[in-house]
Design goal:
globular, 150 residues
Length: 150
Amino acid sequence: MANQYQLPEEVALDIYQDSMVALIENARKNKIDDLQSSINTYLIGIGKFMIYNYLNAQKKNKGINIDEINQDELLNFSTNDESLNGREIALKKAYESLGEQCRKILNLFYFENKKLEEIQQILRYENKDVLKSQKSRCISHLKKSLNHKK
């Protein structure tokens, strides 16, 4: 289904993983006990919803593109706000608004150049895919926060 919308492969994989996580969480919360459809149809519905959310976010994305931010900008967070430009201040505030776990993951991955396997061990994640999904959600939260501050 993701191919129909020409999503980048990494986005499609993240949506697939997030859909599986949502399905598992809903199953654990007994929210799928009374389904009127098959599990497969339910999973496809979750994925379709996430794809539409992604596409809507892309249309509205007129703020700062996190992919264009270099590590030097993030490393300047320790300096005082007077030395930062408007873009750097917005990035700093968005980064600081993330939860502690997100900041840990992003620090380890982007600043310490740790591989996901290393981060999994350091932060004691049971599954690398869960960590990958969490990292993706952290980036999403950072992007949303940046775009709302514009």
